[in-house]
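Researcher: Sequence recovery benchmark, item below. Answer with residues only.
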């Protein structure tokens, strides 16, 4: 498993050091409009300026703790000016796009719901796929707000999901080639997913693709897609404007979220039929067909 330490340049020009979970928590606070402290607005993250990957959580925590003690001049010395960037940034959805996890989600929901006597069909699953886990749980239980029951059901489902997929994930060779080509071209890439951070960490470790991404943004604590919160948070974090972002999605909820964010969207028909993806700017029938040229045509 990979662990990251990030440095962000904030709105008041301070430099903020944090881990993936810490950065996602701050992004969620900002996107949800929650301002528990006076500095939330002035210190909201506006641009990612440095990151480093570590093999163990202990290594990352040690470096993070030390860097927070550093004077500003020492932190600034780590920042390398951005090279001339390509004209776009890619925001990747995760489940169904980067990772073929669709069946594991369905089977884990089906098993957990059967235990409490709630029927669950593939058709119903398709209607909620792409939403955050908490919102899916509320919908399935017929609730308007989170309750202890909905949170427990959600947590049990995700634990079973992670158990099901361990040791079974493989990387699509064509997708690996596309990621490598975009990286070599200097294109910045961010994961912008509704999945909980724990899920992202497990699957990224299984696939070994974390180094391709400048940041990993979980929308689990943000308003669920089709709300554009997770996409706007990802763009903000990477220092990009919405019009320069291309989202890769597989669900109608995600496509609508990209549209509301003012971003272009490539849809992959990996989990939904092509006719359900009509709102995208470009539709690819399967991930094997995705090419770098598909991005360039939208620039």
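Model:
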């Amino acid at each position: 498993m990979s662990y990251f330490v990030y440095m962000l340049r904030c709105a008041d020009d301070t430099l903020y050091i944090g881990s993936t979970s810490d950065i996602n928590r701050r992004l969620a606070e900002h996107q949800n409009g929650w301002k528990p402290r006076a500095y939330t607005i002035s210190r909201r993250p506006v641009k990612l300026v440095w990151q480093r990957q570590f093999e163990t959580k202990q290594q990352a925590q040690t470096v993070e703790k030390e860097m927070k003690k550093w004077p500003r001049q020492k932190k600034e010395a780590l920042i390398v000016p951005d090279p001339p960037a390509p004209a776009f940034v890619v925001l990747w959805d995760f489940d169904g796009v980067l990772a073929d996890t669709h069946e594991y989600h369905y089977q884990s929901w089906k098993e957990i719901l059967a235990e409490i006597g709630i029927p669950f069909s593939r058709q119903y699953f398709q209607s909620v796929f792409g939403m955050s886990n908490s919102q899916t749980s509320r919908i399935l239980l017929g609730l308007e707000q989170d309750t202890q029951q909905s949170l427990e059901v959600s947590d049990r489902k995700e634990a079973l999901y992670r158990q099901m997929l361990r040791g079974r994930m493989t990387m699509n060779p064509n997708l690996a080639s596309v990621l490598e080509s975009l990286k070599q071209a200097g294109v910045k890439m961010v994961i912008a997913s509704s999945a909980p951070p724990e899920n992202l960490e497990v699957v990224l470790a299984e696939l070994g693709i974390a180094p391709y991404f400048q940041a990993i943004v979980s929308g689990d604590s943000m308003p669920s897609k089709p709300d554009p919160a997770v996409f706007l948070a990802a763009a903000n974090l990477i220092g990009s404007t919405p019009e320069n972002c291309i989202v890769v999605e597989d669900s109608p909820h995600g496509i609508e979220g990209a549209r509301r964010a003012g971003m272009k969207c490539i849809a992959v028909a990996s989990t939904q039929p092509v006719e359900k993806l009509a709102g995208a700017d470009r539709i690819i029938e399967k991930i094997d067909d995705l090419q770098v040229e598909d991005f360039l045509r939208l620039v």
